[in-house]
């Protein structure tokens, strides 16, 4: 019981199940959820008793809605698209999800003013048979009721929570696998209402609005490839706000694949607003961690089920060799989502023993919480894999995201958006905005509602992003930037393996690889033989159509990048480096470049300092036995993303790995990344980690809670 002091009537005693007066939002929230199992948290609305279910504190701004007067409330509630907002006397608010009326009918609180608008549907002969089957199931459960009538109420007739589970399962078994939720029974507890709900579900009328996708379709690679090309905002594909588009180009022949929506500032703002609403008010913010993981597992399955189509799109849009795209671009994306799906319910804090102030005792613990809206900006070399590396950790942590794919490779990101809807992700959780870095990317870095930005790209752009993030709202930033990764090859290596590893370190994915070996240091006594063998192997490589299964080397990603690589090679020749092989564009349609080898590269040269990000092997020799000397040369760079060492001497390998200034060191291997291993650079290669448990920390904040008892 509770007591209110009233100046007119003195002390009034009232039952605690009635909406508490003069209470804060937190007290009202606890009062409602405390009565969820035993109905009793109610108030009077329009002359009838209405019971509240499913309360959550509203930590964001109050969404717009229609006022609703209710007895016992300090001020009218608001019926919004997310539920019923109630206000405490402390200026804070809470959201109620469901309402139940005196006759037992339960409705979503958001439908209070429209609950009775649906007309009664006429049943077909087939649907009548389903209704009779369900009536028999009701009769079996409610055995104390002689006849199931249209007006029979499941709960007033003795049905309980275990009976609800039985009803749902029996209907699934006896009605062709029809999948209902327990909540469906509570929402339609009278038999006639329940049959109407079942029939609407059978007809698809109760489903979420179907995703409408305008595809560009192509018959290619022995399949039909369907590619979305519009912005994806708040669960829907839509044209850019100003209608602008741009061409995305197939680098194999220079042809236009399709016109893609070119996101404007207004589109970015809409996407961020949708992500913010989904985080603060939507189902995603209330979802438990295991359910979040279940959605991510489902999305991983859909990526795998569609891997051939996704790999074909990667080949079309980025020039990736199809077999490599299948294994790495798509394969590792699937693995990444599965790995982080498993982390969803294992994100936890810790208890901390602190100094006690006698006679009181204290409990201190930490909580790991999501940040909110996260922006992700990815590069063009691994379009889907870079998306997965960042967005999987972001989503596992419970955030929502706005992702900008590279302007030249947007298509797999938009296909991913389509699959996320099929996986069941709520609206607004994932948003994809194709367009330019100068407009969309810059707006994301400046946006006050974005709490974290993850970027992979060049060092100069990373510096600009970091400035913008600091100047706007000090949003958290992680950056994976440029590299000039050294690979040191000692004369005691296995030479055959060294040739294979060296070529893979440079030419993997056409050299468009952030950890590509930007400079090879080869010990003097094996230098000439190493170069000879590399050239022999290059001559065996097949350059051509990335969809041809026998192709080793596809086109560079886009024309501007090819031109940059050709200029890079010209600079090397002018500075006096020896062009041993390649250095030219392949004479065929598209943006193909010959695999290239330079030797006699001295430390002061442009080739020794700057990243090519292409199929250019830069070789420098070092004196036999000069371990410390080659280490000084390898570390003489502002970059520190990756590095490698090839030697049979384990002591030498460990010494070199300790001295190399890089986020990753490969010993007798290269390009060996794994979803469980943290990945990221040092120095001007950036900071923060993708992959592994450490990646989760990039998308979480730690809250410390101390209480006295």
From TrEMBL:
It is an enzyme of class 1 (oxidoreductase). Belongs to the aldehyde dehydrogenase family. GO terms for biological process: 10-formyltetrahydrofolate catabolic process; one-carbon metabolic process. Coiled coil: none annotated. One of its GO terms (molecular function) is formyltetrahydrofolate dehydrogenase activity. InterPro entries: ACP-like_sf, Ald_DH/histidinol_DH, Ald_DH_C, Ald_DH_CS_CYS, Ald_DH_CS_GLU, Ald_DH_N, Aldehyde_DH_dom, Formyl_trans_C. Residues 125-202 form the Carrier domain. Its EC number is 1.5.1.6. This is formyltetrahydrofolate dehydrogenase. It catalyses: (6R)-10-formyltetrahydrofolate + NADP(+) + H2O = (6S)-5,6,7,8-tetrahydrofolate + CO2 + NADPH + H(+). The keyword Phosphoprotein applies. It comes from Chrysochloris asiatica. The active site is at 480. Keywords: NADP, One-carbon metabolism, Oxidoreductase, Phosphopantetheine, Phosphoprotein. It holds the Pfam family Aldedh.
